[in-house]
Amino acid sequence: MTRRSFITVVALVCTASAAYLAGTAFGSGAIGATPTALPGFTSAVFLSHPNDPARVPVFPGDPSFSLTTTFTVPADGFYLQYVKEGEHTGTHYSAPCHFHVHARCADRLAAGDFLLPAVVVDVRAAVTGDVDYHVTVADL
After folding, report:
1. What global pTM score does this model have?
2. Helix, coil or strand: residue 3
3. What is the pLDDT of residues 92-102, one digit of tens each?
4. Which of 39, 65, 105, 116 is the most exposed place for a label (fewest CB within 10 A)?
């Protein structure tokens, strides 16, 4: 992995983690709710689709979409659905309900829930000296 790729991956993981945590704590609620207000944004358009076999768009000729809940937070400590689809089927993101009992699932999130502040962890100097450098808690 190149240094640039490593830094990009670290930045994306940190951003996704921060967004997930902020979204679960401060999310706006449901589809149709007022979008999250951030400087520079006036509105948000929801482009994702919840995993729903009756509604997920499927490219013509692709296999049919199916969805089965295999694990739940109360029984297993996390939520997981088995998704069977062709590679051109719909869109998906990891919803807060995957890890929290009363958190919202994809169909309860608003477009504004995806507009959140980001954090960049700059480890370029450490990576320059050690291409196998691993991000530490101290870096965060």
Report:
1. 0.43
2. helix
3. 556 788 788 88
4. 39
- CA atoms of 7 and 120, how far apart (whole Å): 10
Chain centroid to CA 113: 11
Buried b (16+ CB within 10 A) or exposed e, 9-48: ebbeebbeeebbebbbeebbeeeeeebbeeeeeeebeeee
Which region holds residue 77: left if phi is over 0, alpha if psi is between -120 and 50, else beta?
A: left
pLDDT in tens, 48-61: 667 788 888 787 88
Separation of alpha carbons 113 and 25, rounded Å: 10
Dig out the tokens for 87 from the structure.
């590679």
